[in-house]
Amino acid sequence: MSPAGPVLITGGSGFTGVHLARMLLDAGRPVRLLDVAVPAAERRFVLGADADALTEDMITASVDDWSAVLDAVRTTRPSAIVHIAAVVSPEVLARRPNLALQVNLGGTVNVLEGARMFDVARTVVFSSIGVLPTRQYEPIDVAHPLLLAGEGPNTGSMARRRSAPRPSATPTCSASGSTCGSCARRRSTAWA
Ligand SMILES: NC(=O)c1ccc[n+]([C@@H]2O[C@H](COP(=O)([O-])OP(=O)(O)OC[C@H]3O[C@@H](n4cnc5c(N)ncnc54)[C@H](O)[C@@H]3O)[C@@H](O)[C@H]2O)c1
């Protein structure tokens, strides 16, 4: 582990990855991106003046390639790893479920194992937006109910949700400061 090493972001060219990279750079933390693809134009826009340097310096590798992941951690000696790389398209995953295993599961194991072998001090594994049921309130925070194992579409058990404290305040519309029609609808459907 190198305390001065960069934060290695897998999936660093993606939506979440570039925003995280931007935030870390703004906080003075060096960053390396690892991804199978370079950042697209709108992602480069988020990276701003650092887009060229980050793209030139990025590690082009797939997280399901164990030796490539190991090599990336060995050569980068990151202070932390943020693992965001994932195949997120439900349409792709429905057609190729083995890809979910290889990349989303196997890739995560590879990253964790690389971190373990090279004593990386901190590894953050992003959860999936797919763990959230229908939004109960906004902004979503850590108390928001999650779908648990055995729940979700096709399980017929959407009612079993992790309980979370009911918001104490009546939701109000940020525009009007009172309860608008949309807020009232949201309140009437929440916590059903
Ligand atoms: N977008 C959100 O609001 C949000 C919220 C919570 C969690 N998440 C989770 O974060 C993860 C990423 O979401 P996103 O919106 O940034 O998706 P995204 O598709 O924009 O980014 C994913 C990145 O991973 C890369 N990638 C795919 N397969 C790879 C592989 N084999 N090796 C290396 N890189 C690979 C892609 O090229 C892409 O750049 C997902 O698991 C998602 O569920 C997203």
Automatic annotation (TrEMBL):
Residues 165-178 have a biased composition (Low complexity). Residues 151-178 are annotated as: Disordered. Pfam families: Epimerase. Transmembrane segments: none annotated. InterPro entries: Epimerase_deHydtase, NAD(P)-bd_dom_sf. Residues 7-137 form the NAD-dependent epimerase/dehydratase domain. Belongs to the NAD(P)-dependent epimerase/dehydratase family. This is NAD(P)-dependent oxidoreductase. It comes from Baekduia soli. The lineage of its organism: Bacteria, Bacillati, Actinomycetota, Thermoleophilia, Solirubrobacterales.
